[in-house]
Predict the structure.
Amino acid sequence: MEPGKFAVIGCRHAHIGSFIREMTGLGYTCAGIYERGNPALAKAFSEQFGIPFANDLESLLAAPDVGIVGCAAVNHEKIQIIETCEKYGKHIMLDKPIVTGREGLDRLEAVFARGTIQVGMLLTSRDRPSIYTLKRQMDNGELGRLVSITMRKPHKLTPEIRESWHFSKEQNGGIIIDLLIHDFDLLRWLTGKEVLRIGSFMAKNILPQYPEFYDTAAVQAVLEGNVIAQLYADWHTPETCWAFGDCRIFVTGTKGCAELRMFGDPAVSMDELMFKMTHGEKFQRVELMAPPVSVVEDFLHRIAGEPCQITHRDLFLASKATVEADEQAVLFKSC
């Protein structure tokens, strides 16, 4: 599709910066940023990219030359923004997560069923060469029949710089909703299998002033074909870490196993890393391949009616599994 104009509605997380950069790099022009809450981040992006502030949401959405909206609003506000974009016939790409609970999931399903607009989510883990390379090798059967997959997603918290909504269950969704949506999407994409059963746990160890904020989560899942998955996230990465978290993926198959170090390893390299060994090959570093299209480009293909990788069904099923893991989590508190 020919580049046109897009708008930004809700600018409360830096994730939206990658969307702005990629859209402008593809020839699109940002018509304006609308943010009715804390304007600090919106102001920074406005100055960085030369984007005007919009004082009126309705006028921005009613503009006939604006076809796409980017959104990084407070998490629980996103479903309402999706419905508003639907009213104006504007496609929308949001940072994760796009819903924070069952009610939002039901409303999202209704939007998908009506089919008026295309909705996207910045599932940017798919853009990582290490994950794309793993996907190619799994598809080619190089690890054999899949037995298990483990994903670890520790994060820095730095609570003094976060807004209060981050610690609110209602507004943020909580650690499983906020962090593991990427992992449930990757489970389905990497394996081609659906999640059949889920067991989950959340623990609270810090920040008693935020009683709803849980800082550690673990999920056990069973996928089709008896594949066992373990997902883990926490907010305990030391401030001295070279990245926001030492995120890793471990895959075991009947022919071999693989490990991804998504943000490198100071002992080896600061670049993304993939290692593999099989019954016929010794432990080795794997050369990475770049994905042919990005998540944003894939979304633009979907809007144009062209073949795409991420569909509404993918977004719904990943969100559904994440919501179900959150709903049934056993809670533990030590503060």
Residues 125-291+324-333 form a domain with the Dihydrodipicolinate Reductase; domain 2 fold (CATH 3.30.360.10).
